[in-house]
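[agent] plan:
  1. take the single chain provided in the ticket
  2. run structure prediction with default settings
  3. attach structure tokens to the ticket
  4. add a short note for the reviewer (M.T.)
[agent] executing step 1
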Amino acid sequence: MTISGELWQANQDLAQACLKHPFVQGIADGTLERKKFTYYVGQDAFFLEAFARAYSVVAAKTPDWEGFGIFHNLAGSVLAELRLHQAYAAAWEVDLSSVQPQPATRRYTDFLLATAWGSDIGLTTAAMSPCMRLYAFLGQQLALAGVLNHHYADWIRTYSSAEFEQLAQQLETLAERYTSATPQVHSIYRYAMLCERDFFQAAWGGG
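[agent] step 2 finished; step 3 output follows
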């Protein structure tokens, strides 16, 4: 099994907890309250800005040109993802410029940026991989029965797409190159998964 596969399988309890979370299930059937989703859009936009910065930091540390290019490509994909959030924000009158990060968001972004600046490439890749793999998993699972025509259909289509799966696989390819399955790597990966779960919980309660 690959390192990425091993880490993902070790955290299936948290992956399933995210899938079954009422916030995610509300996206699935379109019943999620609008205020909860608008809260999420603002917080996720703040998170994605930090995620893009973390990609750029780790790219600068990458010794080989191929890895450098892949990290920069992934940073560009985050900027494209941010444009989706900007479209949501415009349609639902969310002012992204005034968003203040809430505790769950700040814990996650501080963790990512501290890891990117202070740790090696392998640990940073382990910290970033859960976000990509989890969202691909959630999108694909929600799309299994077909995407209903509701306000959150574009969210499901984005994260269930072959394009997003390819991005998740690119990051996992980098994990195979730079990461070893050490206890510290397992710990960092799981902490990121816990942050993901808490992020959904905060959106459920904070909207």
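[agent] step 4 note for reviewer: The chain has one domain: 3-202.
[agent] ticket updated
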